[in-house]
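User: My advisor asked me to double-check a structure prediction for Response regulator before group meeting. I don't want to rely on an old file, so could you generate it fresh from this sequence?
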Amino acid sequence: MAANPKILLVEDDPAIAGIIADLLEDADYEVDGPYASLADGMAAVAADFPAGAVLDVRVRDGDVGLLADDLDRYDIPYLFCTGAFAHPAVNAHPGAPLVPKWALSRQLIDALRRIVH
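Assistant: Sure, here is a fresh prediction for Response regulator from the sequence you gave:
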């Protein structure tokens, strides 16, 4: 039996991170995180490549643009879970799906299943 796909979670709001982690676990994903900073998220990718990632755009030490660049380089699919749709990191990665935080329970898992194989 194959292991559940590991999903990197980068979100600095503990309440939202908890909601996302619960949604992922309920959908049979293994959660790596949550990580509250760009540095921690990048270290997690370097340590163990995930099957996919859920990224908040703004985190404690800036934004996740560099992490999204790394995920692109390693061909790891990801989506942005944010309210900052006009953010430069989102604009620099137009192929990444956007899930509004207010629609997490309705859109997150479907969007993730479309990109993680």
